[in-house]
Amino acid sequence: MSWQEELRQRVRSREQLERLISLTPEERAWFARAGSRPESFGLNITPHFLSLVSGDPGDPIRRQCVPRVEELSFLPRESGDPLEEEKHRVLPRLIHRYRDRALILVTDRCAVACRHCFRRNFAGSGEGTVSPEELRAIGEYLAAHGEIGEVILSGGDPLSLEDGRLFAVMDAVRAAREGIVLRLGTRTPAALPSRITPRLVRGLARRRPLWGVLHLNHPRELGPECTAALARLVDGGIPLLSQTVLLRGVNDDPETLEELFRGLVSRGVKPYYLFQGDLARGTAHFRVPLSRGWEIMRILRRRLSAMALPVYAVDLPGGGGKIPLTESFLRGEEGDSWLFQSVEGGVFRYPKEEEK
Ligand SMILES: *Cc1c(COP(=O)(O)O)cnc(C)c1O
After folding, report:
1. Fold of the 79-324 domain
2. pTM beyond cutoff 0.90
3. From the CB of 90, is ligand 1 less than 6 Å away?
């Protein structure tokens, strides 16, 4: 099956899903209630990702892709735009939050809709793919902003695009400013490994300097198909990093993360970030208290080389930006929150959310 065909066969309805797995009460309740809510973030799973799901209701792959009713409970501190990216959207498709890095919202489409998605207002919103006019405007912005040295292709997942359209986006960046380092942010090796074709890899290699920054959360995502896709990228000369989101019931224990990080390193991928959960709407059931995250990191530091250990980081709610979750950024605690100093100097809160 071609990757395009596999994309067409994605599971997007309750009926399709129920032919493959029997739903739990929490999952059924999402379908019963979400249908009437226009803001609910839709079901979308590739046959490949579903093939990794076991019948176990608590399965870590299943939790990442099959919606549950908890997603429909919104806390007041949660938001559809938890990083306040709208404020930094300098063009409809360009976010310029950090001085030397800019991020293109290439497309709103993804192979799999992750239930923990922090950009859920944009992903699957129907905004579609960047247009030639928008690309021209991005090119002009990059030409005028010599301080930008890295451009992140994100979305959505840029590998939802056909090769030609993806390469056109990369070439527009290159045409604007020769030396820019490209970063391709993608979950595709885990969600749709057949997308990583030899032709794609050759096209990416021709557009270096380019890094792949992958999203992987559980060692079971590193099955034979994903392993082969990663080998094609590594053999093709594409350096790879990975980002993992700390997710309750998925990977919130040192054993699972150790296996994931070792598995990545042995496949040629350097674990880059372990992200604390963002305050994205309807994701409270996924968040792990920071105190537990620190405990897991202390254990991992004893077991893993620096090469295998990512930086534990958070994107401070309220637009504070990314910081490593180390003591030098911690300013103390106040009531139910931890206080952090951002890189720019302001003080921001992150809720403790510990079980009482
Ligand atoms: C995370 C992010 C970056 C890149 O940050 P790094 O720490 O360099 O990985 C750039 N722009 C935006 C908007 C981001 O969210």
Report:
1. TIM Barrel (3.20.20)
2. yes
3. no
